[in-house]
Design goal:
Length: 751
């Protein structure tokens, strides 16, 4: 069911094998980034076999024209794509006049390792009698800086002539381009002694989307002597040579990347690049590396989750946190958390509802409140575009997009664009989550209410009243379970609609906003919907029904399937999937997770026991929710199984799709599974509580959280220990018992 190609180590992602069969998988797993830019772990040197070269700049994208066979009114005109940017890491290496091609040459002593503690990628190999050791990092101390260093030494006792051509290549394209088109054009380039640069710009588009300029500027250090410079239509470079014997020689390439996101116009973008080059040109490699490593050290001081007794579990959580923080650490309020980050192009878009539903809880605990507030403000800034999306469907209010860069919907599958409207509820839930967790109601009272009112207006217009049943209904939707489309009365969607209307109504009563023009008649309509919404429920089974007609399916568990049937999305036709009872991810259970204080343990157990056996977990978002609920229900083995699946989803390639890139937003799930699941951290009603359990195979685990101006450390082993590291005393609950935490508190672990 899974493919594991990397060794298990608490801090290192390592392999001693140059993968050919799983080359793209290895590239995904060794991706690195710094929130500003990043790249897949593809080789800098020539590799003529199959590979996915990918370098990505945060916030730089292209509106690729929508291509569908049958156009429908309301379709987005373009599909926004994270685009492959200039390849500034490229080199060509020659040993004694022959080019090194790692797909053709006989390569020995190969190894690749990603140190998650320091954010440094290292790779080594021996070819044609010469050993090459690469050190690479994207600096978290200076966001525009990428550093690559090759240490070169003779491996056979002979002296070899080594030539390195250090290139910047703008001739790149996306693998998923609809029309095989290229998204870039070269504006300016120059190569001179000691440095070279290319400034490229996205090509014109007919949609009014800005054209981005990206300038990559390389300079050098080390023991190699420069012998020439090169320039072509799409590429510039500098050529270096050295006689390499038993004493290692270093070749260092430093690249500064500046963009029009930060500077206005080509001249300013290039000038900023030159200024930054001047600042780092004379710094030592050791100083640049130390500053970068210290940045990661500060991140891990709060973020690290320590697990004793399972290196696999430990590696999984650290890998996910590392890749998540490599993608987004909250420094730029204009950015959001892309589903593939800097590791691939699949899905497109800068943000999905994943951010609000899965990432916000993690950032609330592991970052300053302003980071989460920035994520909320990102959506507030795009409220006019969300209103536009609603008008495209002929509806009032605001409909936040499924996939977007600007707030305009840019996903072109009808069952997503038109139907997966539950995403609107997640946007509202994040406002509640922030307010409840931090205790800060200033955002709710101002920007938050502006968003909530428009989302409420959407729901009030999207429902219809069934005269025959005397209830409000919502037809023609896709719930979180995307293996069913165009269904009626999805319990989760209907529940979210009621909750949003209720929460908005109550917030308006607490913080009156005459400027939002919510009339008495409008409030009366909301109240009527709240009181009369149809929420499917089966009296005999005593469960919430996923949607109308679900119980009429051929209900059977996943265990009834042959292993050859899985994963369904790669083995079955879409028609067969739609007719089946099998569930892609938490749907009813997603609602029970969101509103856990509204349901009894018995209600949670009945619904979990009914739906989980039919769930194939073929969404990366699925395992964490099931782990959290299983832990609460005392299903320890199931909780651990689901944790392992979310923690090692990419490391073990569970869904056979990691070669396309990592599942960045769902990586929050491993942290959620431990903190909200195993430790049972809850914040219902603004009160913090824990009820931890310890997996039988583990000896202990520990983590930190920020909560309302405090920093807490939670340790779970033979006992549960809570320590207040910073902030005022805090009243909370442990196993249902009130505790006033002033310094530290410990109690026996309950079995």
């Amino acid at each position: 069911m899974y493919t594991r190609i990397m060794e298990t180590d608490p801090w290192i992602i390592r392999s001693q094998k140059l993968e050919t069969e799983h080359k793209r998988l290895q590239e995904s797993l060794t991706s690195i980034g710094n929130g500003y830019m990043g790249a897949r772990g593809s080789f800098e040197e020539s590799y003529s076999a199959d590979s996915h070269l990918g370098t990505y700049i945060a916030g730089v994208w292209f509106p690729d024209k929508t291509r569908v066979g049958w156009w429908k009114n309301g379709y987005p005109k373009y599909f926004g794509k994270a685009i492959n940017a200039v390849n500034f890491a490229k080199v060509k290496i020659f040993v004694d006049g022959s080019e090194v091609d790692l797909a053709k040459n006989q390569v020995s002593d190969f190894s690749v390792s990603l140190n998650m503690q320091t954010g440094v990628l290292r790779r080594s190999f021996t070819v044609s009698g010469v050993k090459f050791e690469l050190t690479k990092f994207f600096s978290v101390a200076r966001k525009e800086l990428a550093v690559l260093r090759w240490d070169v030494v003779s491996a056979d006792g002979k002296t070899h002539k080594v030539r390195i051509e250090s290139l910047i290549d703008a001739d790149v394209k996306n693998e998923d381009s609809n029309y095989e088109g290229k998204f870039w054009q070269v504006l300016d380039k120059a190569a001179q002694a000691g440095e070279s640069h290319i400034a490229s710009q996205t090509v014109e588009n007919p949609f009014g989307v800005e054209q981005f300029i990206v300038n990559a500027h390389q300079v050098f250090a080390g023991d190699f002597a420069e012998t020439a410079q090169t320039a072509a239509d799409w590429q510039v470079g500098n050529v270096f040579e050295a006689e390499v014997g038993s004493e290692a020689k270093a070749f260092e390439k430093r690249v500064i990347v500046t963009t029009s996101r930060d500077y206005q116009g080509l001249a300013a973008v290039e000038a900023a690049g030159r200024d930054l080059v001047a600042k780092i040109k004379n710094e030592t490699f050791e100083d640049l590396l130390s500053a970068h490593e210290n940045g990661w050290k500060r991140r891990w001081e709060i973020a690290d989750v320590v697990i004793e007794g399972s290196d696999e579990a430990q590696q999984g959580i650290r890998f996910n946190l590392f890749q998540l923080f490599s993608t987004y650490y909250g420094e730029d309020a204009r950015l959001n958390i892309g589903p593939k980050g800097f590791t691939g192009e699949k899905y497109g878009g800068a943000t999905y509802w994943d951010t609000e539903a899965y990432a916000v809880p993690l950032y609330l605990s592991l970052a300053e409140p302003q980071v989460t507030r920035n994520l909320l403000q990102y959506r507030r800034n795009q409220l006019p575009q969300a209103q536009h999306n609603a008008r495209e469907q002929g509806l009032a209010g605001a409909l936040y997009p499924m996939v977007t860069f600007t707030g305009i919907e840019c996903h072109n599958e009808w069952e997503i664009t038109f139907e997966e409207i539950h995403r609107n509820g997640a946007i509202a839930y994040a406002i509640y989550n922030y307010t409840n967790y931090t205790g800060d109601e200033t955002y709710l009272a101002k920007e938050g209410l502006e968003v909530l009112v428009e989302i409420a207006r959407f729901w009030a217009d999207r429902v219809h009243f069934s005269k025959r049943n005397g209830q409000y209904m919502i037809h023609g939707v896709t719930g979180p379970n995307e293996y069913e489309n165009n269904i009626n009365n999805n319990w989760y969607t209907n529940t979210l609609a009621v909750w949003v209307l209720t929460y908005t109504r109550d917030a308006l009563a607490k913080y009156p906003r005459p400027d939002l023009c919510v009339s008495a008649d409008e409030l009366a309509k909301w109240n009527d919907i709240i009181e009369k919404m149809y929420l499917p429920f089966d009296q005999e089974l005593n469960v919430f029904v996923q949607h109308d007609g679900f119980l009429d399916k051929d209900l059977r568990p996943v265990s009834a399937l042959s292993k050859d049937d899985l994963p369904l999305n790669q083995k079955w036709s879409w028609d067969k999937i739609l007719r089946s009872p099998f569930i892609k991810q938490a749907d009813v259970l997603q609602g029970i997770y969101f509103f856990g204080d509204k349901f009894s343990l018995d209600e949670k157990r009945r619904n979990y026991d009914f739906y989980e056996p039919m769930t194939v977990h073929e969404s990366s978002l699925s395992p964490s929710i099931h782990a959290i609920l299983a832990a609460e229900l005392g299903k320890g083995e199931k909780a651990v199984e689901m944790y392992e699946r979310t923690a090692r989803l990419d490391l073990d390639n569970y869904n056979n799709d990691t070669d396309d890139g990592l599942h960045i937003t769902s990586m929050t799930g491993s942290w959620l599974a431990i903190v909200q699941g195993f430790a049972q951290m809850k914040t219902w009603g603004g009160r913090l509580s824990f009820a931890p359990f310890l997996p039988t195979a583990w000896k202990g685990y520990a983590f930190h959280i920020n909560y309302r101006g405090r920093l807490l450390k939670v340790e779970v082993g033979t006992e549960v220990k809570l320590t207040l590291l910073k902030g005022e005393a805090l009243e909370l609950s442990v196993y249902g018992e009130p505790v006033k935490l002033e310094n530290s508190f410990a109690t026996a672990l309950k079995k």
